[in-house]
Design goal:
By secondary structure, the chain is an alpha+beta fold. About 40% of the residues lie in helices and about 25% in strands. It folds into three domains: about 240 residues, Bira Bifunctional Protein, Domain 2 (BirA Bifunctional Protein, domain 2), CATH 3.30.930; about 100 residues, no CATH class; about 110 residues, Anticodon-binding domain (Rossmann fold, 3-Layer(aba) Sandwich), CATH 3.40.50. The longest helix has 27 residues.
């Protein structure tokens, strides 16, 4: 099945099973805005809890804050967002649709990669175990031709982006590569122009007294302007970090791929303050730490890769992305950046107040350098759903759709089901739910056959199902079914809590780090 079709199924599954709904759907929706349903919000909260605890529980020098969405507008002038937070946009005159010029070119580069991958896959199938991929890539004429085109385009694109970007060159690349509008199929493009992504509004009760403010496009600045407050009140010594989870807003013109790129989204960011000169060592360490956090989820090392930035942001001296293999290719889920001391220096300059750190060990004051780790919660959510979604053919000829979510992140940890709706079995099942609901999210389900109930729970990723049968009333045991293997075992009711909690708790994930 084509990956595009798989992704469509995943989007449909998210709506059908209460994970993600189009926002304002009864009013025909609002572009690139989504609501999380009853199962989605549980999964999302579990992701945030996993991240938060991995930061503030496992590191005694990292603490958390929750800064306001509205901040003084000069903050965004100091950070560079007012003047430089732009996307290069281009319109197709025939379809009247607007696109990001850089994304169109990156998609074209990806097409060359796909062509090469197909040639390699065909050769691997043809030659079997004797296939030497490295030799094939270096000698096959079709692969070399596509690789040369890909490398030339990549170099030209990098040069254009590093030149400001060069908007005229970006348009010329689109024309030279004969990139067409996906809607109209034509190459009737406008000029490329810059578009600022920040949402603005007014704060104040009267028109004359109103102040123009912005919905924050990132959560990092709320940490930077509070770093000295946290340092002094917490008596923190460098190196130390500040973590935050919160909403951010960007007026994305080209919002696509479901919840991958939205106008209202949530970030998990940690800013780590270090002594100047040590930042690249810490950058390397946090790269490794963050990748290990992702891999602990158990989706396989082949789902992840680093992508080092060729073009660095104006504030950075090193940057890399952790990319995850989505149905539409490897995409960024987390960024790690060495932001130097740019942000703190800018806020000191624009505010006119000293926010230097006094180091008692060296008896000097300096502006710390910063290592940033930043995850989009929504992208993380999507990556987990995509990696967990599976359609399985069973030995009995039936099929099932199952979300093989990491047990600690699953919205519902346990479903309790009476075999029949009589003979005291529902009452016993309710009793089990009432005893376990203080420990984790449980569901009671008595509708339909036991097989259909299993399938419902598989579809939302519930790791365990308990069946209460007539024997339960006599021996105090229930049947425990594992979601992934579908194996069943007889377990004493008194052992359920410790047995299940050991497998589904957030600490069970943290212990892998």
């Amino acid at each position: 099945m084509a990956q595009e079709d798989v992704f469509k199924k995943i989007v449909s599954h998210c709506k059908e099973y209460g994970f993600v709904f189009p926002s304002s759907e009864i009013y025909d929706g609002l572009g690139a805005v989504y609501d999380y349903g009853q199962n989605g919000v549980e999964l999302k909260n579990n992701i945030k809890q996993y991240w938060w605890q991995s930061m503030v529980l496992l590191h005694d020098n990292i603490v958390g804050i929750d800064s306001a969405i509205f901040m003084h507008p000069t903050i965004w002038k100091a950070s560079g967002h007012v003047d430089a937070f732009n996307d290069p946009l281009i319109d197709n005159r025939d379809s009247k649709k607007r696109y990001r010029a850089d994304v169109l070119i990156e998609d074209q580069i990806a097409k060359y990669d796909e062509k090469i991958a197909k040639e390699v896959a065909k050769a691997a199938k043809r030659f079997g175990e004797s296939f030497d991929e490295a030799q094939f890539r270096s000698t096959n004429a079709r692969v070399l031709e596509q690789q040369a085109k890909r490398d030339a385009l990549h170099q030209r694109y990098s040069d254009a982006m590093n030149a400001g970007p060069d908007l005229n060159e970006l348009r010329q690349i689109i024309l030279d590569e004969e990139i067409v509008c996906p809607i109209s199929g034509t190459k009737n493009w406008t000029e490329v122009r810059q578009f600022n992504l920040m949402f603005s509004t007014e704060m104040g009760s009267t028109a004359d007294g109103a102040m123009k403010v912005y919905l924050r496009p990132e959560t990092a600045q709320g940490i930077f302007v509070n770093y000295l407050n946290v340092q002094k009140t917490g008596r923190m010594k460098i190196p130390f970090g500040i973590a935050q989870i919160g909403k951010a807003f960007r007026n994305e013109i080209v919002a696509r791929q479901f919840i991958f790129r939205m106008r209202e989204f949530e970030q998990m960011e940690m800013q780590f303050f270090v002594k100047p000169g040590t930042e690249l060592e810490w950058f390397k360490q946090w790269k490794e730490t963050r990748l290990k956090w992702h891999k602990a989820l158990g989706f396989g090392d082949d789902h992840y890769r680093y992508h080092d930035h060729e073009k660095l942001a104006h504030y950075a001296n090193a940057a890399t992305d952790i990319e995850f293999l989505m149905p539409f290719g490897f995409k960024e889920v987390e960024g790690i950046h060495s932001r130097t001391n740019f942000d703190l220096s800018q806020h000191e300059k624009f505010s006119g107040k000293s926010i230097k750190y006094f180091d008692p060990e060296s008896n000097e004051s300096y502006t710390p350098f910063v290592i940033e780790t930043s995850i989009g919660v929504d992208r993380m959510f999507l990556s987990i759903i995509c990696a967990s979604y599976q359609e399985e053919q069973l030995e009995n000829g039936e099929s099932r759709v199952v979300l093989k979510l990491p047990a600690a992140l699953a919205p519902v940890k346990l479903a309790v089901m009476p075999l029949v709706k009589k003979d005291g079995l529902p009452e016993k099942a309710r009793e089990i739910v009432d005893s376990l609901k203080f420990h984790f999210n449980c569901r009671y389900d008595e509708k339909d056959s036991i097989g259909k109930r299993y399938r419902r729970q598989d579809a939302i990723g519930t790791p365990f199902c308990i069946t209460v049968d007539h024997e339960t009333l006599n021996d105090g045991c229930v049947t425990l079914r594992d979601r992934d293997t579908m194996k069943q075992e007889r377990v004493a009711i008194s052992d359920l809590c410790s047995l299940i909690e050991e497998r589904v708790s957030i600490p069970s994930l943290l212990k892998r780090l």
